[in-house]
Specification:
The chain has helices spanning about 5-10, 25-40, and strands spanning about 45-55, 60-70, 75-80, 80-85, 90-95, 100-105, 130-140, 140-150, 160-165, 170-175, 180-190, 215. The protein is mainly beta. Strands 7-8-9-10-11-1-2-3-4-5-6-12 form a 12-stranded mixed sheet, with helices on one face.
Length: about 220
């Protein structure tokens, strides 16, 4: 799927920045602040998620599953053909295929517009206007639907819709529209917040993976 990795990294599975209350729906901000507070209280979490891509013309095109583990600014993301390790300072992108394995190493760059597994919970605080669109039911769970609209016309993501559990104030799913009219949707299927994660879990150990080609771009 074109742009799949960029969207997930620029996402999933939002750094903690300032909100302009005058341009936001106060009720939407209240809900999102509860979601963000819940996240910040966790020592970390792991989750299995489903991500899909669809268009208005063709409908559902592709559905896949992935796994993510998050601890503060650190995360480890596993997709069907790659794995991404981020320890807050360095990011390793491991590409796996039947023919080769390679890992690209980069420094973590601060980009307030980028969505990551660590900042999906707080992107509403800068660069987006938040509005409570209404409510619905998702797999039997009543949810708030909150639409984030980019303040800049050239933002990487123009609109992001968040689905928040009404009773638990947990983020259950989110949707992102790309620049060609397609929609990426991410849904947590299994979330475990009762875990203790060691920091080295977010580091790719090159010395223990001699069969992997290393591309160091730092």
């Amino acid at each position: 799927m074109k742009g799949k990795t960029t969207i997930i990294l620029s996402l999933i599975f939002l750094g903690f920045i300032q909100v302009s209350l005058g341009q936001n729906d106060p009720k939407a901000v209240e809900i999102l602040e509860k979601v963000s507070d819940n996240y910040q209280k966790l020592n970390g979490f792991s989750a299995i998620f489903e991500y899909s891509y669809s268009t208005e013309d063709e409908g559902l095109i592709q559905t896949n599953t992935g796994e993510v583990t998050v601890k503060g600014e650190k995360y480890r993301l596993t997709l069907d053909d790659q794995e991404i390790f981020n320890n807050g300072n360095t990011v390793w992108t491991l590409i796996k295929s039947s023919k080769y394995k390679e890992v690209t190493i980069n420094d973590v760059e601060e980009d307030t517009e980028e969505l990551t597994p660590s900042n999906i919970y707080s992107i509403y605080k800068k660069g987006y206007e938040a509005n409570l669109e209404g409510s619905s039911v998702m797999t039997g769970v009543p949810v708030h639907e909150i639409l984030l609209t980019a303040e800049k016309p050239n933002a990487q993501f123009e609109k992001i819709k968040l689905y928040v559990d009404k009773s638990k104030n947990d983020l259950l799913a989110w949707e992102i529209k790309d620049d060609v009219g397609g929609t990426f949707k991410y849904t947590f299927k299994d979330l475990n917040s009762n875990i203790n994660i060691m920091d080295d879990y977010f580091v790719f150990n090159t010395s223990e993976n001699k069969d992997v080609e290393i591309i160091d771009l730092r």
